[in-house]
Design brief:
By secondary structure, the chain is an alpha+beta fold. 18% of the residues lie in helices and 22% in strands.
Length: 313
C-alpha cells in the first residue's frame, strides 16, 4: 500500500509529521538510496527503504485488536508467576505484542479487549473518558426498586462515592436476581463492592459490552480479531477524547437487549458452553445531595430525592 513519505516517518515515531516534512525539504531523507525533497511523495513501507541521514526508518507495527470471551478461572495478564492459566493461553499468536485493556477478575467472565495500541487502551480504561462497561450480574436475594435507585444515584464505598450507574433488571427468582449494570469507572472489584454494600452477595459476573464492542455470540474461551468497523469505533474513542476530554457513549434500550428468564433460568446471554480448544473464529461532579456535611460509612446509601437516571457513556 502506498503511503505519503512524511506519514511513514511520523508513524515510526521518529518525528512529528511537520518535522518530517522539514527533514524532507532539507534533503535528509532518502528512498532506496535517492534523496527525496518533494512533499507528498508516496512509498510502500513494506518494500521501499526509507532512511534519515543514513539511518533506516522502521515501519510502524500494524495495529491489532483482539476480542476474547474470557472464561472464569483465568488471570487477566500475559504471564503469571504463580503458574495459573492466563488469557495469553487463549489469544491467537500474532507477530506483535498485545496486552489486555483493563482487567477482569479471576472469577469473572466476559468480553476482554487486547491490543498493542496504547492510546486506545488509555482512552478505554481511564474514568474521565466515560467509556461504558456493561455486566450481567447474578446476586443473592431479590433487589428492590429502592436498591436499584440507590445504585443509580451512587453509593459510598471505602474509596469514595461511586458515579451514577445504569441498572436494569434482567430476571429474578425466589432466591436471587439478575441485573444488567453499566458503569464507566474501573475500580478494583467495583461491581462486587457496590452490590455487597447493599447486602447482596455476587454469585456470577459476565461482561457483555466494553465501549463500542459487544460480546455477542462469541463462545467461551474463544478469541477473534476485531472487524474494521470495530477497530474504527475504538480509534474514534481516542479522537473524541482528544477533542472533548470527556466522552459519553449513550446506552439505549436497543443496545442492552436481554431476556427475562422464568424462575431461576439463566438468561440466554449468560449460558456458558464448554470452552472449545483455542481457535480464532466529567461526570462533572459528585451527587449534589452529598453536601450535607455528615460523614458516611462505606456502603451507606445516599438518601433523598432521586436523581434523574443517567445514561452513562
Amino acid at each position: 500500500m502506498m503511503v505519503r513519505l512524511q506519514k511513514v516517518i511520523a508513524a515510526s515515531g521518529i518525528a512529528s509529521r511537520r518535522a518530517a516534512e522539514t527533514m524532507i525539504r532539507d534533503g535528509h531523507v532518502t528512498v532506496n538510496g535517492n534523496v527525496v525533497r518533494v512533499l507528498g511523495t508516496c512509498v510502500d513501507p513494506s518494500k521501499d527503504h526509507v532512511k534519515i541521514d543514513g539511518r533506516r526508518v522502521q515501519p510502524a507495527e500494524p495495529e491489532v485488536f483482539v476480542l476474547l470471551h474470557k472464561p472464569a478461572g483465568y488471570v487477566t495478564t500475559m504471564d503469571d508467576p504463580q503458574g495459573r492459566p492466563t488469557v495469553a493461553d487463549l489469544v491467537p499468536k500474532v507477530k506483535v505484542r498485545v496486552f489486555p485493556v483493563g482487567r477482569l477478575d479471576y472469577d469473572t467472565e466476559g468480553l476482554l479487549l487486547l491490543t498493542n495500541n496504547g492510546k486506545v487502551a488509555q482512552a478505554c480504561v481511564h474514568p474521565r473518558f466515560h467509556v461504558p462497561k456493561t455486566y450481567l450480574v447474578k446476586v443473592s436475594g431479590v433487589c428492590t426498586d429502592e436498591e436499584i435507585r440507590n445504585l443509580e444515584d451512587g453509593i459510598v464505598l471505602d474509596d469514595g462515592m461511586t458515579a451514577p450507574a445504569t441498572i436494569r433488571k434482567s430476571g429474578k427468582a425466589k432466591a436471587n436476581s439478575w441485573l444488567e449494570l453499566t458503569i464507566h469507572e474501573g475500580r478494583t472489584h467495583q461491581v462486587k463492592r457496590m452490590l455487597e454494600a447493599l447486602g447482596h452477595r455476587v454469585m456470577r459476573i459476565k461482561r457483555v459490552r466494553f465501549g463500542p464492542l459487544e460480546l455477542g455470540d462469541l463462545s467461551v474461551g474463544v478469541s477473534r480479531f476485531a472487524t474494521d468497523a470495530e477497530a474504527n469505533a475504538l480509534r474514534a474513542v481516542v479522537h473524541r477524547t482528544a477533542r472533548t476530554r470527556s466522552v459519553r457513549e449513550p446506552v439505549g434500550s436497543s443496545d442492552l437487549q436481554s431476556s427475562k428468564p422464568a424462575g431461576d433460568t439463566v438468561p440466554p446471554r449468560m449460558r456458558q458452553t464448554k470452552a472449545p480448544a483455542n481457535r480464532i473464529v466529567r461526570d462533572t461532579g459528585r451527587n449534589a445531595r452529598l453536601a450535607s456535611g455528615n460523614p458516611r460509612q462505606p456502603g451507606q446509601v445516599v438518601k433523598g430525592q432521586r436523581r434523574a437516571r443517567t445514561r452513562n457513556g
